[in-house]
Specification:
Mean pLDDT: 80
Order of helices and strands: EEHEHEHEEEEEEEEEEEEEEEEHEEE
Distance between the termini: 60 Å
Radius of gyration: 35 Å
Low-confidence stretches: 1-30, 32-37, 58-69, 99-107
Number of helices: 4
CATH architecture of the largest domain: Sandwich
Strand content: 25-35%
Shape: globular
Number of domains: 2
Structural class: alpha+beta
């Protein structure tokens, strides 16, 4: 560039009285920077720019800042024009992968089916029980969607370990409508023993169990918004029935055991001669012990992909991530009854704890 002086310092030097025509045009277009302490007319004369309009003459850093800003803007525009198509292509590919369930959120990998499971080694008092695999609460690729219209649900054959006297049942659940009058969509049901279901004409849920004399009910009480994921837990300790919503105790009701035993299968998402749920469910866990408030809170904090908090006590674990397998180590795998679908686009109603 032609001679410029900035605060008395020589920025460049032209040792010719003639100024390159192209350079002159550039200077006339952009302007020239002069030191505020110099003789401006003399400097312009040396540059052959004595006729340069005063609007193109700047002093000190005023023009430096203006010009550098323009250069940055021009560079950004050129970058977008050159690489914009590539950025668009990457965005489209990421969007497709997100819809296919490769990501559970921003940069969150989705769990593969069976990525975490309970492993039992040995038998009897020498048996060791532990979690194996990727068990850090990764969100699942899929959940099971059910509908009262199709009537589909999951059937787990009866087994001795599911006949319990003290227990905890837990599930992540999303519902999408209010049942018609007289319908009680089932979430978890072992007929005549324990139930978790949606109340008729309501969005509240009830946990129920039965002894030899009567049934007892604990309720979530508040109406729960549709199309949102929530965590439901029911516990029975031999004396009290409790129900929790998102880690918070909602109701306690007394009931003296023992509860009835049952040879009926375990049904998930419907069954038990009642109606199927309209919604989606994930990560069903059943324990042969009563989890404490702090344990239930910790399990909720793990999120929808959380592993069992007490592997040694979990007797059934169905993540429902692309299959109906039991990953508790007991292999009580489920079977499909009616119309079930696996959904990968389930995250819109989910907020991680």
């Amino acid at each position: 560039m032609a001679l410029k002086r900035l605060f008395g310092l020589k920025m460049a030097m032209i040792r010719s009285n003639a100024v390159n025509v192209a350079m002159t045009n550039t200077i006339i277009s952009s302007g020239v920077i002069l030191s505020p302490t110099r003789n401006h007319k003399k400097d312009l004369y040396k540059l052959g720019l004595e006729s340069l309009p005063s609007s193109k003459v700047f002093y000190g850093f005023e023009r430096v800042l203006s010009m550098s800003s323009g250069i940055r803007s021009q560079s950004a525009m050129e970058y977008l024009m050159t690489y914009g198509w590539a950025i668009l292509a990457v965005a489209v590919v990421l969007g497709v992968l997100f819809q296919l369930g490769v990501f559970g959120g921003v940069g969150t990998p989705r769990a593969q089916p069976g990525n975490c499971q309970v492993v039992k080694v040995g038998t009897g008092i020498t048996q060791t029980i532990s979690l194996a695999g990727e068990c850090q609460g990764q969100q699942p690729q899929y959940v099971v969607a059910t509908s009262s219209a199709s009537g589909g649900y999951i059937v787990v054959p009866n087994s001795q370990q599911l006949n319990l006297q003290t227990f905890t049942i837990a599930v992540w659940l999303e519902t999408s409508n209010t049942p018609p009058s007289g319908q009680y969509p089932q979430v978890i049901c072992k007929n005549t023993q324990y139930y978790l279901y949606q109340e008729t004409t309501s969005s509240t849920f009830t946990f129920e169990t039965t002894n030899s004399v009567t049934n007892q009910y604990a309720h979530t009480a508040t109406n729960i918004p549709f199309n949102q994921w929530h965590f439901y837990v029911g516990t029975y300790d031999g004396s009290n029935l409790r129900v929790y919503l998102d880690g918070v105790l909602k109701d306690t009701q007394p009931l003296q055991g023992p509860v009835q035993t049952s040879t009926n299968p375990l049904d998930l998402g419907g069954g038990c001669v009642y109606n199927s749920l309209t919604g989606a469910l994930s990560n069903v866990q059943i324990y042969n012990t009563t989890l404490s408030q702090s344990e239930i809170t910790a399990l909720y904090q793990e999120g929808i992909g959380g592993a069992p908090i007490k592997p040694q006590n979990v007797v059934g674990w169905w993540p429902l991530n692309g299959n109906l397998n039991d990953y508790s180590g007991n292999n009580d795998n489920g079977q499909s009854s009616g119309g079930l679908t696996y959904s990968s686009s389930w995250t819109s109603g989910y907020t991680a704890p």
